[in-house]
Amino acid sequence: MATILSVLPADTALRSTPRGRLSAGRLVAFSSLALPIYAAQMPLNVYLPAIYAQHYGLPLALLGTIFLIEKLWGTLADPLIGTLSDRTAGRIGRRKPWIAAGGILFGLAGVALFFPPADVGPWWLGSALFVFYLGWSMIQIPYLAWSGEISGDYHERTRIVTYQTVVGSAALLAVLVLPTIVDQIRPGDAPLKLGAMGAAILLALILALLLALRAFPEPPLPAVRAERQPLLATIGIVLRDGPLMRVLLSDFAVTIGQNIRGTLFVFFVAIYMGLPHWASGLFLLQFIFGITAGPIWMAIARRLGKHRTAVIGELVQVVINLGLLLVVPGELPLLLALTVAQGLAQGSGNLMLRAMVADAADRHRLETGEDRSALFFSVFSISMKGGMAAAVGLALPLVAWAGFDPASQHNSHEALRALLLLFALGPAIAHLLSAWLVWHFPIDEAAHSDIRRALDARDTAPAL
After folding, report:
1. Residue ending a domain, choose from 172, 189, 221
2. Cα separations (Å) of 6 from 26, 59, 223, 421, 453?
3. By residue range, what is the domain housing residue 438?
4. CA-CA 20 to 30 A from 93: which of 37, 315, 339, 401?
């Protein structure tokens, strides 16, 4: 057996030793691709619309329409690219060609978005966003699928996702801080602020492509493959996969809970608590503790397994959010403690659920003979985007219906009470639902070991 393994290609050896611990240096290089992906989120959601409206004079209603259409386009592109990536059989792999081509589109569109001409108009913005979101999907979906393929080990997959989450969150933190630095140097210089963020994203993209594409070989195509189905039929097969749907619905609930809290955070701290000068600082503090918590949850998952750790993390978040009902306006200590606790618990569900998608894809491949990893991750991406949209669509209309007005200096006691209840109970209910959904996830470490043994036996039999 040792002689046979010595003459097999490197990527075959990679698949045939699922329990090998991956090099930390290679994992950092591979995770670097999370830098441009995460770093682009904040400018596109927060700064880009405001700068294009205030500095370049594009009407708000038109901007809202353009960004809505482009986000819908990005959502539609995800499953298409996931399916095409799964079906690619190129000489250098299924994932790398898509990531490289997506990187080129992402970079070119990034130049157009972050360094626009002085007379930029809606067609320029719309076209650049169209290409940007296409390139983003071409990088992100194959990259997430590849993340689940570089190791078949149950715990090693959690380690891979942890590295990606920490690296990506650090990039997002840097982009959060960068506009503040620019404001201190050149207050009011919108093109400089936009260009600084764009330069950081593009430099991160170039570095990440050079590092990530060389970090690991792609595994070989599965030896046994099912007959291809049309795209809509394939998506229907995926949506009928029980373990995947548990993960998707759980992540949808997690995302709704987190984004209800995020949407109302400034209103709660500034208006309900009466501490407007603490709003940005507390948000940043929560984010920083969220970055440091990744390795903690990885260690817990190694002892308890991914789905049990996800349940514990979600229940901890339920307790933290219920604790917000005890905060008193003007009193900082309890709010500060709960904010730190929230940061430490915040990434638990996201991290575990993303690692569980690859396990569900293994089970699906064993049962159907078709590797649909990229399609699984594309559907998972849609659940995240849907959760973000649903949170905003729920939180803001509900507090407005209750009479809360962020522009008013004299909100009624009932309106403020409604803000508190939604800020605390909305996420608590969502996290409780997420814990319930993932509680009966059928793939623990033992079950996944059986699945991997069966897959490895089937995949290596023809080569041997």
Report:
1. 221
2. 22, 64, 20, 62, 20
3. 237-464
4. 37
CA-to-CA distance for 37 and 381, rounded, in angstroms? 13
Q: What tens digit of pLDDT does each residue of 80-127 get? A: 898 888 888 777 788 999 999 999 999 999 999 999 998 888 899 899
Residues in Cβ contact with 165 at an 8 Å cutoff, skipping those fewer than 6 apart:
34, 294, 347, 350, 351
Q: How far apart are CA 47 and CA 345, in angstroms?
A: 27
Contacting residues for 400 by C-beta, under 8 A, at least 6 apart = none
Q: How many domains does the chain have?
A: 2
With respect to residue 197, please indicate whether it lies within any of the assigned structural domains.
Answer: yes
Instruction: Indicate if 143 and 196 belong to the same structural domain.
Output: yes
Same domain, 152 and 260: no
Is residue 249 located within the same domain as residue 388? yes
- Pull the structure tokens for residue 350: 């996201």
What are the backbone angles phi and psi of residue 90, rounded to the nearest 5°? Answer: -75, 170
DSSP assignment string, 442-459: S--HHHHHHHHHHHHHHH
The per-residue pLDDT for range 43-60, each reduced to its tens digit, is 777 678 778 887 888 887
Angle among Cα 307, 313, 314 to the nearest 5 degrees reads 90
Task: Report pLDDT for 227.
Answer: 56
Residue that terminates a domain, selected from 177, 197, 221: 221
14 in a domain, yes or no?
no
Query: What's residue 46's pLDDT?
Result: 66
- Rounded to an integer, what distance in angstroms lies between the CA atom of residue 144 and that of residue 163? 13
CB 291 within 8 A of CB 173: yes
pLDDT tens for 26-37 read 999 999 999 998
CA-angle at 245, arms to 242 and 249, nearest 5°: 145
Q: What pLDDT, on the 0 to 100 scale, is given for residue 228?
A: 61
pTM for this predicted structure: 0.77
Residue 91 lies in a domain: yes
Helix residue ranges per DSSP H, 88-121: 96-114
Q: Are 312 and 426 in contact (CB under 8 A)?
A: no
Q: Do 251 and 213 sit in the same domain of this protein?
A: no
90: β partners: 93
